[in-house]
Amino acid sequence: MRDIVTGGTKTVNGKQGLHHLAQVILGLAAIVSVLALPGCATYSASMAHVENAAANRDLDAANKALDKLKLGGSDETLLHLNKGTLLRWQGQYADSNTQFEAAKNLMEQLDAISIKEQAASVTINDTFKAYEGLPSEQLMVYSFEALNYLQMGDVDDAAVEARQFNLKQRLLAEKHRNAKYLSGAFVRYLNGMVYEAAGEPDSARIEMQKAVDGYKAQNAGFPIPRKLGDDLARLKAGKPAPSEVVFILHNGLGATLAENVIRVANPAYDPRNPKSIGMISLAVPRFVRRPIPVDHVVLSAGASSATSEEVEDVNGIAEKSFNDRLPVIIARGVARMAVKLAAEAEVNKKEADNPMVSIFTNIAANASERADTRSWTLLPGNILMARLSLPAGKHDVTATYYDGGGNVLGSRDFKDVEVKPGQKSFVSDYFLSQPGRR
Amino acid sequence: MLSKRIWMLLGALMAALVLGGCSTEVKRVGVDEVRDLSGYWNDTDSRLVAEEMIRDSLSGGWIDRYAQKTSHTPAVIVGEVRNLSNEHINTRTFVNDLERAFVNSGRVDVVASKTQREGIRQERSDMDLNASESTRKEMGKERGADFMLMGTINTITDASGREQIRFYQIDMTLISLADNRMVWTGQKKLKKDVTEARFR
Predict the structure, then answer these.
(1) Same domain flag for A300 and A430
(2) pLDDT, tens digit, for every residue of A299-332?
(3) Which one of A296, B25, B82, B194 has the fewest beta carbons within 10 angstroms of its own beta carbon?
(4) In this complex, is the C-beta atom of A169 within 8 Å of any C-beta atom belonging to chain B?
(5) Which residue range is the domain that position A140 belongs to?
(6) CB within 8 A of A84, min separation 6: which ones?
């Protein structure tokens, strides 16, 4: 403890040093409280304006609302992830990929540990840690970048994403050995299509097989996509790919995290000390699922039609990932409160004759306690895929969205979709519930 | 109340956080200077590939063989260099270096690329209408290429924890447009051991 406080200043003794450290912790907490309290809304609550504008299909307003949040510093990754999603929805695929690429680079850099951020997270709150994205989010970036390239007709660059994903997924699986939900089954299914389009049928077959294995391993709660099985059988038989339109729907919004205050036992509780507190309050995130609006999509062109299949349960994977992280979040919160309480006690002991200090330190310790509610909130709740085989040529294609009761929620027309012989044309859309119904 | 010294300490801390790294520093470096930042494909890799390919292609013997057989300079067109790696690599840099070396050697003619040709044809059409007869250039007199240069970039990356071994293999082939014969193949291999920092 002395080494940390003195930092080479030999004249400060241990007790003085401890007292000064306590003052520094509470002083920083006080500054954070002053800075944070006026804009008290958590990240997830602030994103509501962006989501509402997007739900109304006013993506320019959504982009402006996102810019207004001025996400930067420790939240910069979130800025790029959300911006990339909005630009993708706007059909600005190249710009979207610039954002996703920036997010990926940051994720890579942030994988290294920052002592400063770790110290801040155990003394002030978790939001001081730079957001590097959940492992499931890190994998999802590759699929959106690949889709953007495919929708620009750039198969080779989509294949670069597929290869990068392969490496990333392997490293994440190595790091989180029991997290079967990180199999990246959907991304592998997509990558199989990418490899086949790039003229690499062997790689396509291997990816499709891994996708089947991944769906089984992650036990997603929905059947393995039938079309994936068909593809795998066709590739194993060495048959060529049919000409088709592949439609991807970003369906609803993924889960959000709300702030939740829980009471836990104070590990530093001293029953002999009447001032010692037995239970402490911690601000921790709470996983909140949002309803998924579309049950299925019917993709049609002339007399031909095809019904969608669920290919990724983004919510389910995020929940499993959250549940894995929660014990660590709580343990860090308990350690943090113990540090704050110890600092508070130390300062109060020295300034016993000044009641204002006691009030001030208490406010500083509690007001700085905020849950980290950050997540890539513009991720869909799930992803639906519809594949429609069509003869080569240009086609007008319509995607009709149905709810669970078979009612039509809406539809989108795609004019002059060009289908080349033996190739896939990718089109996509998003559908969000109207504000107030989320 | 908090002592004066603590407030000064906090003030200094805040100032350091706010002011730290607020100016951009620019330093010019030589183009041949090797600076590896991330371990990914960079300018040095591109230059090393270009140098190797130029040296190899100009001394390959195919130019002399073609000149002896036909008694004119071979014309080459640069085709696609497919990126089959796991990085978004700009292949134009070393392809341009290779083109420049061919042109400057005086032993090979380089034909304009597909995009360049479209622009030139548009200009020629415009000349038909607007240029004087003595300066107008006729359609249908383009130099057809004798050979096409094509290539691939492949990578194999092995990674565990914070360490990665990145292996790059660049293959280039010159193919006779008349009969699909490969008259020259060049290859360059690069290998990097990259260890990422544990702390930042």
Answers:
(1) yes
(2) 999 999 999 999 999 999 999 999 999 999 999 8
(3) B25
(4) no
(5) 134-147+156-241
(6) A96, A97, A98, A99, A100, A103, A141, A144
